[in-house]
Structures are given as C-alpha cells and as structure tokens.
Amino acid sequence: MSASERFDCHYCKDSLLGKKYIMKEDTQYCTKCYENLFANCCEGCSLPIGCNCKDLSYKDRHWHDQCFKCAKCSRSLVEKAFAAKDELLLCTECYANDYSSKCSTCKKTVMPGSRKMEYKGNSWHETCFLCHRCQQPIGTKSFIPKDTGYFCVPCFEKQFAYQCCACKKAITTGGVTYQDKPWHRECFLCIGCRKQLSGQRFTSRENYPYCLECFSNLYAKKCVGCTKAITSLAGAKYISFEERQWHSECFTCMQCSVSLVGRGFLTQRDNILCTDCGREK
After folding, report:
1. Domain range holding 211?
2. Is residue 184 a part of any domain in this protein?
3. pLDDT grade, residue 67 (50/70/90)?
C-alpha cells in the first residue's frame, strides 16, 4: 500500500482502515488517542469521558451522565432542575430543605426559582404575601407595614390614614395638625396669600390661619410715623398714645427727631415734640 493510500491516526500513526476514528479540526485520530488527548475528565469519578459516553457540562465542568448526581441524595440530575451551592450540585428538593427560606405565612419552603417576596429578613411565596385587610396578594404593588400586618395602600388609607380637612384625601406621610384637624403640609396655606405655612410662623383670626405678613396687612394697627403695620407677633415693641401707635424707633420728636421713648414729650395738634422743641414753640 502506497503512502498516499494510507489512512493513519495522526498521533500514533496506526492504520485506521476498518476502524472507528474521530475527526477533530480536519484531522483523524483513533479513539484511544483522541480520549488521551482531548477527552474531558469527569468531576464525579475523575475518569476520562470517552467517545462512547455523553459529556454533560456545567460552567466548564464535565460529568459522565451516570455521574451527574445530587451531591446529597445521589439522585440523577440528568434533564432535571438543579441548583449549585459551594461547588456542589443539588437537586431542588435537597437545596430547598437545606438552604431555601421558609414562607412566613404557610411555613413551607420557598423553592428555588419560584416567585417570592422578601422584606426585613422574612420571605413569602408571592401568593402568600397578602394584604391584612382585603386578603388579596400584594405582589409588586406598594404596601405599608402596620403593627404585625402589611396593607395595600388603598386598604391602609381606608383603615388608618387621616383625611386632610382641605382636600379630603388620605394623609399617608407627615402632615400638620391645626386646631385638632389634620392637613397635608402642602394644603396648610395662609388664607390670604395661599403661601404654605408648614414650618413657618403664623397666627389665626376667626379660626383661619394667616402668615404674619397677611395678618399684619389686614388687621394690625398702623404706625403714625412710618405708616407700616405694627405687630407684636414678630417681637416688635411699640408706643400707644391717645389711640395712636408708633414703632419704638418711630416715636421721635417731629422737629429734631430725638427719640422720645422713656422721655417726656408735648403735643402740638397731631405732632409730638420733645420738651425742648415744645418750649421753643
């Protein structure tokens, strides 16, 4: 037989005529050489995975099909769901028993891959996480914890939330109490200019809230000197004489402008004068 007619193993050079062989990258090998050169080593038994065996792989690791078993109960994992833990492969039952959390409602295992709800270290099956009031699954909707229960937002508002006396809607966070009535912060406004009063100084008249500016403009007495409002709400001091009022800093002699606070003074028609200027008149 000529060299051109030979058909040999690329590695050991034995003839492959009439024998089983394997092609790899356009090169032929006898089965023995192929297994020695290229076969993967089984994670289960540490033996090569031969040409006549199935090679099952997971994350660059390989097994004979008969070696692909649960590390705890030894049941076959071929074509079954499994989970990995610390390099070990486990059937879903073993994994669930050893590592999965228990549902806080039904106390049964929350199986790997199933939909679940977690909150503050507790777990529930999605169908077990129910609103304490309407007993409907909360799912991905917002909820509010209260005491030992959990409530969907509509149920919480119906059972626990105060209603704003302005807009009549539920107050779920924060809020302001005025005259024993609840308000949203954004609804508690000055009756005059509609400015928010939450966190600001304010006063009231006839049970209506006012910011200091509106109250002063509407109800405070006016200073004879500067004609601006006089209010003690901001701590201002003032002088009152014959039904007229002055800011302390405005109570000055009409002629020489000296302060008359704590001093004697004279009147001349609607004017007030220090005693010196009054004598000159």
Report:
1. 163-219
2. yes
3. very high
